[in-house]
Amino acid sequence: MILTAMQQTALRYPDKTAIQMKVGDRYHRYTYRELLRAVASACAGLTELGLNKGDRVALLSENRLEWALAYVSVVALGAVIVPMDAQLTDKEVAVLLKSSGAKAICVSAACSEKLPKGGELLVLSFDPGEGLSFPALLTARPDAAMPPPPSADDLAALLYTSGTTGDPKGVMLSHKNLASNAQSLIKLNILRIEDNLLCILPLHHTYPSMACIVLPLSQGTTVTYLNSLKGPDIMQSMQETGVNAMLGVPQFFAGLRRAIFDEIRKKPFLVRTIVNFLLILNGQLRRILNVNIGKKLFAKVHARFGPSFRFFTSGGARLDPEVFTDMTRLGFTIIEAYGLTETSPAATFNPLDKQKAGSIGIPVPDVEVRIVNPDEHGQGEIAIRGPNVMQGYYNMPAETAEVLKDGWFFTGDLGYRDQDGYFFITGRSKEMIVLSTGKKVFPDELEKFYKQIPEIKEICLMQGARGLEAAVVPDFDYLRRMNLPNSRETIAFKIEDLAKDLPPYKRITGLKIFKDPLPITRLGKLKRKAVMDLYHQQGELAERPVADIDADLLASPEAKKLLACLEPFSAKKQIVPDDNLELDLGLDSLMRVELVVSIEKTFGISLPESFGSEVFTVKDAVVKIRELLAAGPLAAGERVRLSWGEILGQEPSGEVKETLSLEAGPVWNVGRYAIKLFVKTFFKVYNRLSVRGLENLPTRGPFIIAPNHLSLADAPSVMAAVSWKVGSETFFLGANEYFSGPLTSRIGKLIQVIPVDMEARLYNALQLSAYVLREGKILCVFPEGTRARDGKLHEFKKGVGIIAKELNVPIIPVAISGTYEMLAPGRNFPMPAKVTVVFGKPIVPGDRDYDGIVKNLYEDVAALLKSGSRGQGSGDRV
Questions:
Q1: Could you give all domains of the chain from N- to C-terminal order, each with its CATH number?
Q2: Is 753 helix (H, G, I), strand (E, B) or coil?
Q3: Average pLDDT over residues 650-673
Q4: Would you state the pLDDT for residue 871?
């Protein structure tokens, strides 16, 4: 049936290019006449080699013209094609060959080493080498006649989906399955005779084999194959061959959209505003009037794809609705279909004249789709019936019976049908996470929600001991641009902030950061089991071999000295240039400060303030140090590591001191008193402020006030709680993002804020903190570092212990309650909740180490919060 359609096409368009691909510096092409002649010759040759109707012929190769020719030839002969992924291991190849009962295999030189040794397997090589030459079969019998067409119900293809190392499932597709699906798609009028379709996806999948072989060759379209996913290669192929349609997967379109919108974000504010307006305008015109002016509005973007480019097609996985919407607004057309290997594959299609973002569309012609056992929300399992549905799983009657019932194929996908007849997928029944509480979570849905965070490039959710846990790959390019080297802290904070309004069971309770991409299939789907295995293995630092170029880098004098500086900070035995300072070597913000000081002393140079935030890897650090040393000789001193006492004992520069006002004049004092009076009155009246334990405060500085951190209202609540004398001497550590503007910096100076930039200027903040304490002042530090997004007490950072220990000043534990209800993170206006501030008894550092001091402080604050007592604590007191 497939062959009949191709023969008819060859009669109509004999001299039209059917398939083409660039090999070396030139394109190899087959017209439809040449294609048919080559297939007839190959069929005759295969028959002479002893292959007959029904025999299994495996196909193991990267994309190339021979792949398509072998596929068509085997199917035309009436034998059964068994496509295999070129990235399979030799063990997996052996399993599939045995399972399918393959009599022969067509293989490329690149994959031939994966074949089992010995045996009676007939090997047909695409390249010169061992085995018979398949290209020779294509030309050996130019006058051969086509074999008689197979019957509709004869098996055409045996395709393995997953489980290739255990009990692989072989999907049996008949000639009727494939031909009917091609005819359904032809009725949709997607492809035209004059189209040139670019195929970059691996052909062993049903989706590209249908879209790039069976469908186009059944109606006269030209197909251009490419064995590369690199942007420059794709663009070059488009320009050289006049490609006007392209096959892709959601991952490709997400990357394309990211690249385009990253460029837009670099434009000035006015330009961005105009572009956003035009995007919305074109989106509305396409939705309401089906008019697309995007190609003219965004001509520069479209120019890269050529003037005649028509559309993309997306399949293999669900396309993110936001990606679809943005690409549509830009003027691109993305055709999205849905189906599975078991449905040949297409079952639904999002109509070109009325597309819905996020929908898989409506059934293709001659196919039925329904929702089985819908719940109260209309959600149930998607089932498909039609001539495209498989015959079953090869030699697996029980597994076949589980999914084929009364002619309906039960997909395992959960979804619903809207009032217009469009279907939507909500998740996979097998991937649905059922938490210990009985709550059900669809990871796809939540992963999309959390991927709103620009710092997250990839995320995979899974069930953990405490609830949902996440494996995350950061967007290191974005973090670099934003000067955010501490990826874990940044992402954890953003996740908590984003999830504050979600039900508790949908919030992430565990997080691990990965440097390398998460395992995915060739079509971009997460391999969740593989990700879970990696997640549980995380923490074991693999020792990777050093590449020659990196070995040269590490051999440089700069690198040797830098490695000497790094050794005290990391337990990793073999440090390599690509090691991430945070993820591989374990450096936190405070360690970065120590490292920066160590580098300055060791090399005899002054590092810029941005050094800590610009450097992500060992290689980055070496390159940066080389740049700074370029103007002068390398320092001859040995590696130096300063103690925290020496670091904090250094006097801040005059420029840094200018950010504070230690001795305020009468005008500043009037301003501060007015602010203090307003804050105190506001908290007393609006929030019924209750203060206890003021008697625990020393009569004078220096000392540290250390409260828990719930809200932006915490610092003002402390300001309102203490006397004018204490308040006028107190300096607050505050996030730089709130006090970095021209006006806000002056306000910060007025209310005595030391701006803290955890990424770039933590060194300055620590020096200023020590400086004000040495001047006999009071320092208010929030040991948690950031606000608690859930209103609970979180881990205390070591910084407060370092400052207290090295300057030998007492710490006052403080318990604040009510400010979370008053002004929770994300809320813009304060609520009239009761606020309580309790001061505990001072903790003297004594002979404890930094961690011991912080542990003592945490326990005291927790006790104050729990009991509401008047300053009871557990540490040594003044």
A1: 2-238 (3.40.50.12780), 433-537 (3.30.300.30), 548-642 (1.10.1200.10), 655-867 (3.40.1130.10)
A2: strand
A3: 71
A4: 41
